[in-house]
Predict the structure.
Amino acid sequence: MLVLERIYYKYDPNLVLDGVSLTLAPGQILCITGPSGCGKTTLMKIAAGLITANSGVVNNTFTGTGYVFQEPRLLPWLTTQQNLAFGLKAQGISQVKRDRYSQKLAQQLGLEQALNHYPHQLSGGMQQRVALGRALAINPDLLLLDEPFKGLDVGRRREFQEILLKLLGDRNLAACIISHDLAEAVRLGDRILVMSPSPSRIVHQWQSSLSPVVRDEAYIYREITQLLSLPQVSRCFRLNNIASHPNFIKSN
Amino acid sequence: MRISIKNPMNPTLWSKNPLRPLQLILPELVGLGIFLILWQLGAMHYGSIVLPSPWETGIAIWRLATTGKLENALLITSFHLLAAFTLALLLGVILGIVAGIKLWFKKAISPIISALQGIPPIAWIVLALLWFGTGNGVPIFTITVTTLPIIFLGAVEAIQTFPTPLLEMASLFRTPQNMLLSDLYLPHLLSYIFPSLVAGLGLAWRVAVMAELLSSDMGIGAELNLARINLDTDEVMAWIAVVVLSIWVSEYLLLRPLHRKLEPWQHSQMTVNIK
């Protein structure tokens, strides 16, 4: 269980997070969405313990936490296999075991042919898959993903999302995914938290009735439309001109 | 002169045309050929006392090689270079790392470094002659102080450009200190030090010959001086050619292959399209 309670974070002179709370239960996928600059990454880093909040409580009872950054952050001098095994090496696991495990991971991620390649030889999507593999290698039960699909084209995005959903399901992992794309959030998340910028607060919570594997396009678009019809949500996605229009509110 | 192979997976590249490697360095060969022709013309015009021809120089080199003089001189000069380079590398890297981490130390040491850069090598030689007399001391000292700033600046830049996002990533995995050093800091440092080494090497050779010429009775510089005293122009030319060849050999056959071996990630150019 990951519990964040009334998190305040001030990065002078701006208040970045204004009393944000969230909970994430084992096996659940939580998406945090909102416009850029609303403090999503900061919140994620506080959850991972990379930054300390000014006040509030962070309670993480998961045994292992994996983290995937916006950029792959691979070490340019290590091959795919070595990058995948980075966390294992840090844990002092032997070379033989590391190799065996990273080969298995590469298979699950479709990276078998890239094991001996260096990051600059891989496409952006493959690099991001290596980063995901590196986070999964340490066998976490919680995975934090900060816009993992950023910079990927539509096809690669879907491909990566499917790989991710399968891996999360197979391992019964809890995940917290940051995305500024509402459609993506509705596609992946069991729950969605919508964050507003300045001040950064959670303005809406959404819960899905369907498992991610059975959600079809029609369901996704219906849910997005419903979400965007809420003024507090549409305001976050800079649709405030429409939402605050008298006719728009009247029609609802 | 680095030969970049876009697709080494393709065996036909080599099997079809065995002259391919030669074709790749054709411009270099043409340049060298023109230089040799101009040299030959000059030699024919001025006579071999003033300017020995390439052929005569070649014969002189052969003579030096067969009498063992060449081997001796090369060994001595290489020893000077290696000793001085090791010293410069150790000092430069240690000082560079400290200066990269502590800004005040960088500020404090930078006037000294720019002074080291500004002082002409010949001035160091004069000073070193007074301090160390004749022998190995003068060349080793002079090469060290002239190459030190180059390596120092390379190390400072390496530390200051270290990508902090990678450190943040490593901290999430609770990476132990020794692994941070071996897997993050050292490879990054190495990639910045190598260009400095290549730049320092040319300078080191020039300074080595000069220092040996003025202070030592052994090494290429000393032999060059001896040939000058004997008015043996063939041999003077031969020693100069030996220096040039040595610089090529140490850069292309030693330093660059070493670089490739230590940093394969900087040299693998091919990109793969695997889905």
Summary: The interface with chain A takes residues 165-166, 168-176, 179, 183-184, 187-188, 191, 263-265, 268, 270-275 of chain B (CB under 8 Å). Residues 40 and 54 of chain B are 6 Å apart (CA to CA). Residues 1-15 of chain B have pLDDT under 50 and may be disordered.
